[in-house]
Write the structure tokens for this entry.
Amino acid sequence: MAPLIYENWLPSDGEYCGKADETEADEKEQKIWKKWLKVTGFILVTIIAPLWLLDKQTILSEEFMTGALFVNVFAVIQIFHVVYLTYRNYVRKTEHDVLGYVMDNQGVLYPQEIAEFTDESLSSIQRMADRWHKANLVSTSYGNDGTVMYLFPNVTAESMVYLREPNYNPLAQLKRVKEQLMQTCCYAFLYSFLAGYAFMNWSHFIFYGGIGAVCAAYRTFYSIQAREEAEQIERIGLQVATHRNGQLTVHELAYNAMVSMKEAAKLLKKWELANIARRIEIGEGFVPVYIISGVVSKECGWLQSGCSTIHFRWGV
């Protein structure tokens, strides 16, 4: 049997007791209130202090506006990046929730059941399934009563190599993003004054060099993070293929690596072009199944000796 990984499965104190303790709720509310006081104070200081220290003529000068423009452009790029990462995480977690239902249901997705077993609605799952079907990642069939069902090939008990309990809260994620965007706007407002002052009073070479250094550091950090994440996904794909006798489907990779079906299909296509994987098509819809070159199924000695759990941490 494939090793399973249980992540974030422990119940909270509220689940143990049936309801959250009132004292803990009060403390949490006080922390939120203190946090909002700090944020409000930061905003007031950010806005009032520069306006009080600088006169109107200085702020409206061409050099000052040029320096502020650089900072605001960088802030807009940062905001778009945050929104992109948030949307990508939302797609990954919602699709993972649906794929968990598919794995438990032996590779069959009934849209009418989706609201009972996942956090999706009938309309949202219809859009998601249609997108998968259009990309030829799933096939369709019809029951005796004419209801449509989506078929995911090659799903067995061995497909769930890494089992993660769903712990995604879209509302909490949205709240964090709103706070992050608000902080970004406040910092952009403050740094625009600093950049304008620096552009007016310092050498332009030093200013451009500083802007270039910040952009290079930002780019390098996220490039390293993206490369590490891509390597993590590839390792998981090879591990899943090892437990599947060298076979790997898009939905198996997407579920176990907790990525979107589109990202999983893109990686397997990359492997196919690099001759790492060979594509075969099965079923009426010719849904692809990939054979990974050089991967042979083998029994692990530590599994036979009684070890049945792999501890795995997923870095976001």
Residues 217 and 223 are 10 Å apart (CA to CA).
